[in-house]
Specification:
The complex is a heterodimer of chains A (479) and B (337). By secondary structure, chain A is an alpha+beta fold. Chain A has 2 domains: 222 residues, Methane Monooxygenase Hydroxylase, Chain G, domain 1; 244 residues, Alpha-Beta Plaits. Chain A is built from 14 helices and 13 strands. In chain A, the strands form 3 sheets. In chain A, strands 4-5-3-7-6-11-12-13 form an 8-stranded mixed β-sheet. In chain A, strands 8-9-10 form a 3-stranded antiparallel β-sheet. In chain A, β11 and β12 form a beta hairpin. Chain B has 337 residues and is α/β, with parallel strands linked by helices. Chain B folds into 2 domains: 91 residues, no CATH class; 211 residues, Vaccinia Virus protein VP39 (Rossmann fold, 3-Layer(aba) Sandwich). Helix content of chain B is 37%, strand content 20%. Chain B contains 11 helices and 12 strands. Chain B has a 7-stranded mixed β-sheet with strand order 8-7-6-9-10-12-11, with helices on both faces. A 3-stranded antiparallel β-sheet of chain B has the order 1-3-2. Chain B is globular and about 70 Å long. Classes of the chains: A alpha+beta (479), B alpha/beta (337). Chains A and B meet through β8 and α12 of A and α3 of B.
């Protein structure tokens, strides 16, 4: 078994140094039977597919699978019910490693137990964030559904189920694969020490260190594993009661999100903006384009509160203003989107007056599209042609209707973010105080910083990551 | 109408070919559109910011005045135009600001926009229309947002994509280019215009969209250059001059002072050209052929529709008025019997 692990590792983990390691192995282990090795080679060559899960090449049928540890059978099958706990050759599991309570030292300390403990801890956190138990249950449900003979009688449903099944499967496989890699490296390291093979030992240490670093990235990725997290999104901001002061606050928030998005390399466009009479905006919609824009921005949904000396108050009094933020994912998968009937739409020129046509030269061609059955409307005025304004308004409308549909299905399985109309003005999520002291504090996580300027200039990541991790990590039952 | 163009101008303008579009030519009356110029200039971020502050202040101060005087651009529209001006004129690379015009020119252009009421589209030399970016300049009508819908009306006609179409009074070539882009193998558009400015600019736009095989521009009044395809046309579109002569003096400055009267003035009731088009359509279209004309709206549309379904009832059928997005009866459509 140990022999097999080494072979597997040398063939899979390190494609560039494959040959030398293999040679070293041959020279130090004369006991292995050559014919077996060649058939192993055939079976065990593997690559990572684009989803990060592991696939095998070769003909597994040539070997008796019962000789392999249980996890191997799991990889050879795609059924959730067969998932079982992975172990090292001497029965150590990821939970087992964490339970041993090995000290986690600095990365530079070349202690394998410390690396292993850190990685195992990350794996536990990743599983918690992914809501592993819930995921397994869901996968089992989906597997049952997917095996029904009449599944494809409803192709839309079947498509959705098999997509969700595939998505969950690949997420779980990735974690399982990572877990497996850890245990193999431990096996290998122990073996190298037994055999006094220093090359192999340092190889394994290096691999563990790499895993430890990757694990940190994977922890972050796991924060953004929701259905629509990878989507682009619209961020909508609406001023609360209080006139100019709160309209100015809404404009400050829009600016904060624009700058935040730009720091992240997201594309930002203002789709719709209703300016206030004196200053600021009554309401605005911006589009944030890029991978995981929704996953991050969804942490901002809710009411934001500002306390400051109002520049609009000649008496220099302190004012408190509110603005609500909604975030809507732009769903990429066309088949899951709300189907809009052309005949349900009313399209009109927004703010049009007068004779129009040749009489008027205007660069404004704002369009408002109303979905008559729901009364939901969208406006776009910032594009340079009516055609583009219409297309843009249509995409906002589509996403608003998708959001409505998601809310309807929320009790089934999906999660959704609140729309502006659903957000209650009663509780705010974050407070920005510029006077009498200076602080921004998130009331959901208690995360706070004492430099409001940097936050208002888009430095929001601390708030976002704290919220995302606290909302996923706090609930122990989810693992 | 033909006599409105002095012969000397005709000869002068005829000499300007598409090739003269490159900035190297010494004698050219119109600079190339901003967005097509090379990034030859650069500016310090602080200088550009100073321009932006100055231009913003002018827009905020002068916008409300222009809006209330004759329905000109308000402050928010001017601010949007300012951002588009900068979008066309500048490009950022590695923190450096590259420009297609120097800052002096930007100051001059913005002054022209506000003080001379030069239409924004002439300032930057282009108009975004449907999904197109059309080159425009003085001498051609700036295509209006309303007119975008004519293309949708055409696309609803059965078998339009393999048909022969005509765009009468093409101006910048907007309709011809948009229709041309939607055509398949056998489809063609003939675009006519009396104005040599229009013929030249439409040529540039057809060329820019690679439609020389699809769109043929012909110089002449309405149907005059189309004698060879008489009775063969699948469809006709036109946005002819339809403003009543008496309305011309009261037009918003951008239109009245800068756009060509030739493309605006529709005679006493505004219907001179529309009626001419209706009459000629009866013989220009093939049986079953489609027409769609833009009008001054409501009363004028009703008048034309009424005319076609009564006086020329034996030539046309299914004559309708169609609303634009502002709810105005903007178009008249129908079919030849």
């Amino acid at each position: 078994m140990v022999l097999f692990s080494i072979l597997k590792r040398s063939l899979s983990r390190n494609p560039n140094t494959k040959k030398p390691i293999f040679a070293a192995f041959l020279s130090s282990h004369s006991l292995n039977p050559l014919p077996l090795r060649s058939s192993f080679y055939l079976v065990r060559s593997r690559i990572r597919d684009p989803y990060g899960s592991i696939v095998f090449f070769g003909n597994a049928g040539r070997l008796d699978l019962s000789h392999f540890p249980p996890w191997f059978r799991w990889f050879s099958s795609s059924e959730a019910s067969e998932i079982s706990e992975a172990t090292t050759s001497d029965g150590l599991t990821v939970d087992g490693i964490v339970a041993k309570g090995w000290a986690i030292l600095d990365e530079n300390e070349g202690d394998w137990k410390s690396h292993a403990a850190a990685i195992a801890q990350s794996i536990q956190l990743i599983k918690k964030r992914l809501q592993w138990k819930k995921m397994s249950v869901r996968l089992e449900q989906l597997s049952v559904t997917i095996n029904k003979v009449d599944l494809w009688d409803d192709p839309v449903f079947a498509g959705r189920v098999s997509r969700e099944h595939g998505g969950l499967m690949s997420k779980m496989k990735e974690v399982k694969g990572f877990e497996q890699d850890l245990l193999e490296h431990i096996d290998m390291l122990k073996l190298a020490r037994e055999e006094n093979d220093q090359d192999l030992e340092s190889e394994s240490m290096k691999a563990l260190l790499n895993m430890r670093r990757t694990a940190k990235e994977k922890e972050l990725e796991a924060l953004l594993a929701g259905d629509n997290d990878s989507c682009s999104c619209f961020i909508e901001v609406q001023a609360g009661a209080g006139g100019t002061e709160s309209m100015d606050w809404a404009a400050m928030l829009v600016n904060m999100y624009k700058m935040w998005a730009q720091h992240h390399g997201f594309g930002v466009t203002v789709v719709d903006e209703m300016p206030g009479e004196v200053a600021g905006i009554k309401r605005a919609t911006i589009k944030v384009d890029g991978e995981y824009a929704f996953g991050y921005a969804k942490a901002e949904v809710g009411v934001h509160r500002l306390v400051r000396i109002s520049p609009f108050d000649s008496a220099k009094k302190r004012h408190t203003s509110f603005a609500a933020v909604a975030v809507i994912p732009i769903i990429g998968d066309v088949s899951t989107r709300y189907q809009i009937k052309e005949s349900d739409l009313r399209i009109e020129r927004f703010r049009a007056g007068g004779a129009g046509g040749q009489h008027v030269n205007t660069t404004e061609s704002a369009v408002r599209i109303t979905h008559i059955p729901t009364g939901i409307a969208a406006t776009c005025q910032n594009e340079r042609s009516q055609h583009s304004n219409k297309a843009s308004a249509m995409s906002v409308l589509q996403s608003r209707l998708d959001q409505l549909e998601m809310a309807r299905q929320a009790q089934l399985n999906a999660e959704h973010t609140q729309s502006l109309t659903e957000i209650s003005w009663g509780n705010h999520i974050r407070s920005y105080v510029l006077h009498p002291y200076r602080m921004v504090k998130d009331l959901r996580t208690n995360y706070e910083v004492s430099d409001p300027d940097s936050v208002l200039e888009g430095d929001l990541d601390g708030f976002i990551l704290n919220f995302l991790s606290s909302s996923l990590d706090k609930d122990e039952d989810k693992l | 109408m033909i006599s409105r163009l002095p012969i000397s101008t005709v000869h002068l303008r005829r000499a300007i070919t598409i090739a003269s579009f490159s900035p190297s030519t010494a004698t050219q009356p119109y600079p190339p559109p901003l967005f097509l110029r090379p990034l030859t200039y650069s500016a310090a971020p602080s200088d550009l910011a100073a321009f932006r502050r100055w231009a913003t202040a002018r827009a905020t101060v002068d916008g409300p005045r222009l809006e209330s005087s004759d329905g000109g651009p308000g402050a928010s529209q001017l601010l949007r135009e300012l951002s588009w001006l900068l979008e066309d004129a500048t490009s950022q690379s590695n923190g450096k600001i590259l420009m297609r015009a120097d800052l002096d020119e930007l100051y001059r252009l913005w002054k022209e926009r506000i003080e001379e009421r030069k239409p924004f589209q002439y300032v930057v030399g282009c108009e975004h229309w449907r999904d197109l970016v059309l080159v425009v300049r003085e001498g051609v009508l700036i295509p209006r947002p309303e007119t975008e819908m004519l293309v949708d009306l055409v696309r609803e006609v059965e078998g339009f994509s393999e048909g022969l179409w005509a765009d009468l009074g093409t101006g910048s070539g907007a309709l011809a280019v948009a229709i041309g882009r939607a055509l398949e193998d056998k489809g063609r558009v003939f675009a006519t215009d009396l104005s040599l400015d229009a013929v030249e600019v439409a040529g540039i736009n057809v060329e820019r969209y690679g439609l020389k095989d699809k769109v043929e521009i012909r110089h002449g009044s309405w149907f005059e250059p189309l004698k060879d395809v008489k009775g063969k046309l699948t469809g006709l579109v036109s946005n002819p001059p339809y403003i009543p002569s008496s309305d011309i003096p009261g037009l918003q400055a951008e239109v009245g002072r800068h756009e060509p009267k030739l493309a605006l003035d529709g005679g006493m009731n505004g219907t001179d050209h529309l009626l001419h088009l209706c009459e000629e359509s009866a013989t220009a279209l093939r049986p079953g052929g489609f027409f769609a004309f833009e009008t001054n709206g409501n009363i004028q549309s009703e008048l034309i529709a009424n005319h076609m379904s009564t006086k020329w009832a034996n030539c046309f059928h299914n004559v309708k008025t169609v609303l634009d997005f502002a709810g105005i009866k903007r178009f008249v459509t129908g079919f030849r019997r």
